[in-house]
Amino acid sequence: MFQGSMVALVTPMLDDGSVDDAALADLVEFHVEAGTDAIVAVGTTGESATLTIPEHARVIRQIIDLVARRIPVIAGTGANATAEAIELTDHARRAGADACLLVTPYYNKPTQEGLFRHYQAIASAVDIPQILYNVPGRTAVDMLPATTARLSALHNIIGIKEAFGTVERIRELLAICTDGFMVVTGDDATAMESMLAGAQGDISVTANVVPREMHLMCKAAVAGDRDTAMTIEERISDLHTVLFQESSPIPVKWALQAMGRIGPGIRLPLTPLASEYHASVTAALKKAGALT
Q: Which CATH class name applies to 4-226?
């Protein structure tokens, strides 16, 4: 069901930090028309950590309604409290999400057994396809491949977004997880090589600004067509670097603002992109054809 370029969609906001519903609708259409293969609603790139639970639930439902079944919607429903993750995941199920994406609990640094039990509890409580999300650079905990392999045996845990950041980690997961378990990357810089190594797709920040190019690059890489993938990757690869010069989604929201697609809104403790980075982001956007 899920492969290719899956955008980790930003949540557009007005100057006061409230959700910009009109811009959100425009972004959804931008991605559907550009060929994005799935939308991740209110993941960490969508500022899930600073949306209230009612806002989080509302934006997920909005995106599902706006997409209207044209492409899959994966709802970001992870939390560092298991009970909160269950609540958000159940809301997404009732709203009609195709699957949920659950980041490892952040800050409290659970053990590997704690991670297993956290995900086991959510899978037992809510009958919806669930995708694990490992991003140790943001959460301060690394879910090891052996733990992922244990979880891959649970019927409604269908895959993992692995953002450890190496192709070697992707290969290890593909080798030890249950047959049919989906492995996608969450690291744009290594995404092409990860897909050529067997990953089924990329849950991408870069896709926010160049959705057509990411769709085509991912399609080629998943098919094993290195030459086509590389031709596209050479145009967009600078974005994978500049969109992480400050904490994501700071640079990508600035990029979308420069493209005229969203306003400047972002929530504290995140702040607008520092002026010293404007030129490099602009140059990468122009190289990729996203800005003239």
A: alpha beta
Could you confirm whether 219 is annotated as catalytic?
no
- Determine which one of 161, 219, 253, 277 is catalytic: 161
Query: What is the reported pTM?
Result: 0.97
**Active-site residue (options: 106, 133, 219, 253):** 133
Q: What is the pLDDT of residues 229-263, one digit of tens each?
A: 999 999 999 999 999 999 999 999 999 999 999 99
pLDDT digits (tens, 9 = 90+) for 156-188: 999 999 999 999 999 999 999 999 999 999 999
Residue 161 is a catalytic residue: yes
CB 248 within 8 A of CB 205: yes
Cα angle 19-31-68, degrees, rounded to a multiple of 5: 75
**Interatomic CA distance for residues 1 and 144, integer angstroms:** 25
- Taking each helix axis as running N to C, give the angle between helix 188-196 and helix 226-242, from 0 to 180 degrees, rounded to the nearest 10: 160
Q: Where are the domains of the chain?
A: 4-226
